[in-house]
Write a structure and sequence with these properties.
Blueprint lengths: L8 H12 L6 H12 L3 H13 L3 E6 L2 E6 L3 H17 L3 H11 L4 H15 L1
Antiparallel strand pairs: 1-2
Helix pairs in contact: 1-2, 1-3, 2-3
Keywords: DNA-binding, Transcription, Transcription regulation
Pfam families: Penicillinase_R
InterPro entries: BlaI_family (IPR005650), WH-like_DNA-bd_sf (IPR036388), WH_DNA-bd_sf (IPR036390)
Length: about 120
Amino acid sequence: MENMKKLPDAEFEIMRVVWENEPPITTAIVMEKLGDKRKWKAPTVLTLMSRLVERGFLQTEKKGKERTYYPLISKEDYLALETEKFMKQYHENSFLSFVNTLYNTKQPTEKELDELLKWAKERRE
């Protein structure tokens, strides 16, 4: 899984639909969720889903005339992998550097700070 490449935005959007719906997924489901919003035609969705199969993100089966798709990586695993790469590349694996960057661009609310402190205390136990 370490060799897995970052998903381009369009493919990530399709994976979000896959992760948010009970497998198996069809192109019709993806078209229903993204087609109008992204102005994608069916051949575009088929191409993107084929790429996801080639990259090892989806498995496909043919059932009659329709192809069905199953995720091969969970959303949590993918996000953990990408977050780890991001933290190494941009913050030298420093959680404090990451939080400082967030704090400098957006002042957290009292509620967010309380939740962060609660989360940190729970992690130490």
